[in-house]
Each structure stands twice: as C-alpha cells, then as structure tokens.
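Sorry, I am new here, but would you mind making up a protein's amino acid sequence and the tokens describing how it folds?
***
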Amino acid sequence: MPSYGNSSSSSKQLSKYPQKNNTRSILNSSSRNLKVPQKDLLIFFRQLAVILQSGVPLAQGIILLSENTKNKNFATIQSKIASRLSSGEELSICLSKYPKIFPDITIGLIEAGEAGGILDKVLDRIATLIEERAKIKSQIQGALIYPVIILTLAITVSLALLIFIVPKFEQMFNSMDAELPSLTKFMLNLSELVTSSSFLILSPIIIGVFLFLFSNYYKTKSGKFNLDSLILKIPLFGSLILRSEVASMCDTMTTLLDSGIPLVEVLEKCIAASSNDRIKKSLLIAIKSVREGQELAISLNTYQVFPKLVISMIKIGEETGRLSFMSQNLATFYKREVETSVSSLTKAMEPLIIIVVAGIVGTIVIALYLPMFKVIQVMQ
C-alpha cells in the first residue's frame, strides 16, 4: 500500500517550507464557513493528485500548492491542513473541518481512497467530477440566460417607447380632437401610467416585496419542493434541467461506486450533490426501499421522476452486476443530451428575440399611426 507522507520524515521535509503566517490572515472560526470557487478546488485536487503520483509526501505537497495559490484565504487553509497532516491526521479528517469547502461526497471519496491505498487516483477522480459538474452547470446557465435577455430587452424597448415617443404623439392627437381607436387609447393610458411619479415610487416597492416573499417561500421546505417540482415541468427548460440533474447524479454514482463505497452511502452522497428538492425526495425514498431489500431500479421508479431509460439501464446494471458501468454510460449519454439541448435552445432563441422585439415595436407603432390613417380616410 503506498504511503502518502504522514510520517516523521514528512514532518522534517515540511519544515523546509515555512508557513507564511506573517503574510496571511490568521485562520479563525469564519474560515470554516469560507466558500472557495470550484475552479480553485479543481486545480487543487488535480495538482495534488499529480504531486502524489510523483512521490512527494502529502503534507509537503499541500504546502507547495498553498505557496502557489492566488486565493490567500484558501492558501491559509491549505497550510493549516498541511500542519494537521504533519502531526499524523488523515487527509479526510483534515478536510472535514471545512464542510463549506469540501462537501461530504469529497470526504467520502477520500476516505475510500485512504482505505484502499489509491488516494492519488481518487483525487484525480474528484477533480474530474468537479470539472464535469461545473461544465454542466455552465451549459445550463448559458441556456437560461437567453430568456432573461429577451425579457430585459423587451421591457427596456417598451419603456423607452412609452416614456419618450408616445407622449409626443399624445400632444398631436389632442390637437386633432378626434375619436381615437381603442388600441391607441390603451397605449396612451399605459404611457401616462409609466411616466407618473406614483409608478416610479410604487414599482420598485412592489418588485422588492414580491422578491422578498418569493425568497422567503423558497427557503421553506414545502416552498422549495413545490417550486423545484414546477421547474421540472416547464416546457423545454424543465427537461433540460432534469437531464442535467441525471447526468450529474450518474457521474457521481460512477465515481463513488468505482471507489468501493456502498450503494446506500452512494445515494446519500447523490442527495447532497443534487440541487433539486424533488430529485432529493426521490432519492430519499429510494434509500429507504434499498435498505428494505428492494432493487435500486424499482426504488427509483417509485416517485416517477427519472426518465424510463435511467430506470431500464440501472435495472440491467443490477442484473448483470455492472451498475457502475451502466451509470457511467448514462452519465455520458445525458451529458451529450444536455449539450445538444443547449445548442438547439440557443439557436431557437435567436429568432425569438427578433420576433418579440419586433412584435412590441410593431404594436406600439400601429397604435400611434392608426388615428392618422383614420384622419386620411375622413379627408378622402
């Protein structure tokens, strides 16, 4: 079994790399709640795996990483971890002191790596898992940003026309002293509303109250579950989010199962890794059923959240004893599905932006010019 350098020789080597406490802020209780960007964690685990494979003791390797880490707070934490390692503690115990930085799934994988003597391989798997999850998250954010752009652009164009253009036409219509079409009246009334002082005062208050109530509701257990369930039912976006959740879950399952972690514990780690409460509830029910002796495929199908393909492939994996292999294939398939869906959604959104903006501008222009057409008809 390979040694990872928690010996006295490692401690001697560690002393060659003095900790720069005089240039870094002292780690206090708030450091336990510090959050580190996923990019920094990816670099940390990837480089640490390479250092271990090169035969460098673990504590010394972490000190080397801390000296080259740009994030000073994270560098200080690395120095503290190295100090604990040199005193004989295991890496998993050291990292568990910082739950906001190193989640349960990471600690569980490292514990398995320490027990099996494959810590370097496990660290590389953790880096790959972080990288894949960050990629999926980035793709989802890229897809969801288009509707926000459309909504923002539509509101901006509408307000600009109603505030600056429509009032000028209103003066002209008043001088004409003619009966205005219903659409024109509606547009003029809307313009008066958005240019009034009451609108400027009340609209931010109403938006603020709505966001406050929404945030408080989402923080409740039932609120988060209901809204997360609703998200999965939204056309186009719901299926995209579900695919991303499945891809992330299967990726996590593969990594954990390959590290020799028991199935129930694997599912518990998947719950911690998921961001959707409906998915979490489904996995909780599955854990209870698996503990009672039920097959995983049947347990996951109880709540009817996951696609039938997932249930079928997991069933085959259980029957053939190749559950890890099947979950890996599912992860690969759904990651490709997410990429394809994001690409298709992006292409569909481009003409939609043009249609929405053109529709808003066209409606306002028609409303403003209808009275003129009516006057021309009367004159003829």
Notes: The two ends are 99 Å apart (CA to CA). The chain has two domains: 8-102, 132-380. Residues 31 and 158 are 47 Å apart (CA to CA). The domain at 8-102 is CATH 1.20.81 (Receptor-associated Protein).
